[in-house]
Write a structure and sequence with these properties.
Blueprint (H helix, E strand, L loop, with lengths): L1 H24 L5 H11 L3 H27 L7 H17 L7 H9 L5 H35 L7 H27 L2 H9 L5 H10 L1 H17 L1 H18 L1 H9 L7 H25 L9 H12 L4 H26 L4
Length: 345
Amino acid sequence: MKWTKQRLNNLFFCLGVIAVVVMLLTFDVSFIELWQHLCHAGYWLIPIVGVWLLVYGLNALSWKSVIEGNLGHKAPLSFWRIYRLTITGYALNYATPVGGLGGEPYRIMELSKNIDHQHATSSVILYAMMHFFAHFWFWFISIFIYLALAAVGDLPFTPAIGVVLGIVIMFCLLAFYLFSKGYRNGLVKYVLGIICRLPGLKKWTLRFWARHAEAIENIDKQIASLHNQDRRAFYKSLVLEYFSRVVQSSEVLFMLLLFGVDCGGGLDGLMLAYLHSILIVSFTTLFANLIGFLPMQIGVQEGGFVLSIAALGLSAALGIFVSIICRVREIIWIAVGMALMKIKD
């Protein structure tokens, strides 16, 4: 078993290394232009990359809350280990297609060293659900931020924008309904039921279900119990995940300030620029997740930044700069995640 886990660890490591190489080779600019953008960023690159120490810290605290709520007692592993697995898991998510789910099998494998496999599986599934659930709340609240700024004349509001915002609201409300069902009743059986309807997968799904029926039932019970029995852990995790996205928006704020976009200066201007940064991140992540089947969202994230920044009346050049620097930040953190994978606790 140890050899199998070691081989899987090496497979995940190689996947991350390949991802870094692919990302370096798929920049939409030449290396000369890339170097010019990095020189333009200068010392601002330090806080842009460094803010993710706090973002991942909030993610790790959110996951820790899920684990402890799921177990019903203090997590039998250190915060450093959870923090390390959080960074490595997201590094793998950046590197893989299908909505960035590559880090979850790795997290289950590593977490199973500290707790039983069923609780490890349900804790990882619960955190993945919370991560996406917080995304929808981030998008949902961002709509009202946009409407508030439009009401004071800071941002445009047209019938077309109104239709788009209305569609996003309906999309989020539908997601809230589906997540509420998943949190009340569990998710594994529901997902397997969907897979069972896919061509060619029915027999495999039924065999898997028959072999692991008891484990599946227990995992779904554990998923449902967090929301039904430990509301404090549930909402603590949700709030931490939501604010990780608010903190993430700081990196865009730093780049806006680097380009002299301070919305008039002063504290009021800084707060307004921060709200713009939240809207940029919100629109870009929505766009990237809708087309999340592409590995590392190659081209999607860049397009999302350019479109969202242009929608706020800013220059396309700024959008290109933000997208490139964010891609550099991703490469740096993927490399960090791969290095942490080889560190033994």
